[in-house]
TrEMBL record:
Source superkingdom: Bacteria
The keyword Membrane appears for this protein: no
Protein name: Dyp-type peroxidase
Domain DyP dimeric alpha+beta barrel, chain residue ranges per copy: 64-137
SUPFAM superfamilies the record matches: Dimeric alpha+beta barrel
Family designation: Belongs to the DyP-type peroxidase family.
InterPro entries associated with the record: Dimeric_a/b-barrel (IPR011008), DyP_N (IPR049509), Dyp_peroxidase (IPR006314)
Needed co-factor(s): heme b
Lineage: Bacteria, Bacillati, Actinomycetota, Actinomycetes, Micrococcales
Amino acid sequence: MAEVALELDDIQSGALHERPSPYVGTYLMLRIDDRADGLELVRRLIPLVASGVPASDPDHDAWITVGFTYVGLAALGVPQESLDTFAPEFREGMAARAAQLGDVGPSSPENWEHPLGSAEVHVAIAVLSPNAADLEIVAEQARHAHEELPGITVVWRQDCYQLPTGRTSFGFKDGIGQPAIEGSGRPASNPHERPIKAGEIILGYPDETGELPPMPSPEILGRNGTYVVFRKLHTNVAAYRRYLRERAADRKEEALLGAKMVGRWQSGAPLAVSPDEDAPELGADPHRNNAYMYGDDARGLKCPIGAHSRRANPRDALDGDGSVNVNLHRMVRRGTSYGPELPEGILEDDGADRGILFVFAGAHLKRQFEFVKTQWLNDGIFIGAPNEADPLIGSAAGPTDFTIPQKPIRRRLTDIPPFVTTRGGEYFFAPSLSAMRWLTELA
């Protein structure tokens, strides 16, 4: 298949644009109570939305990304015959699919933050910037877009920022392992992997099957758009730390057990390259910290087969019989942190809300996000351990086990409690700039 040229000027930047580091940001959810005001909101947002130009563009010190739920598109007056052409998962919404996704118990929709997952969420606006000053300028533009529109109500807001350590609330370097997208102009961080086909992320282009993925109609509505998965995940950092402390002989082993569960050391250094000790220089090097495969580690002696990062992206580990094309399940991740950092060494929960806002972009909700969540993270069948969920963010149904292959005898961590609780989520559609203009012209 010949490489395609993406229409970058028409694609919202969120699917292609790496978030900055450091970053600050704000996520807003809005409800449309009046269709005319909703269309005016879209009209005002169009000049603010950044397109998928290269991240080196100096004009993009801060940018806005906009998405709509199925209910939100209906509130704007999108014809039913067009609404019916969206992916079934998008039409149902995340809350309706919670049980299938493993969002049960404390993570079930009845425990989500209101109004996440409800029919009140119509529009999502994400504003990200490398610094607070630029963020405020763009955030003010976003506020102006919906202010003085009585038919538009802000129903939810969450601020986010990079923690002082530059890591997630669990203490691990974030933002590693993004796939290269054909035609995006973004270089690959792993020279051992070819770029994935553009149609895996952006609608209107051939995907890994060589075909055009199903696309909403009319073409102007679907082309250059992408589906966006939003999830607010509360992290119980104290419980995670206590679990490791109780099972480790010393701090060195504590760090090793944490690395085995994640697949990387906290610095970002991958176990596949540095299995025995942390290598901070490796972890900090974007040209090396993702340049590896798992083909030479079939037994998981370096990186356990059930480690979080290996589950989420098995790379070449499933190529043995040629039956699995991992690229069919790749997606773009744009995670950000929220809430205060739990001070180092604290083992008791302080009651603060902290965690990760996970944002995924892709053209196939079911075989990308939903497949990875249910088949690779929640279930262990594909690694030969049916009862072992992802040790870090697996199913909220209850405790799980985790196997660490080693010689002469493997080690098994048992009764790992859920460290992550889903606080809400939704499926959005991020239309192209052309599609947003089309929306404003709806009769």
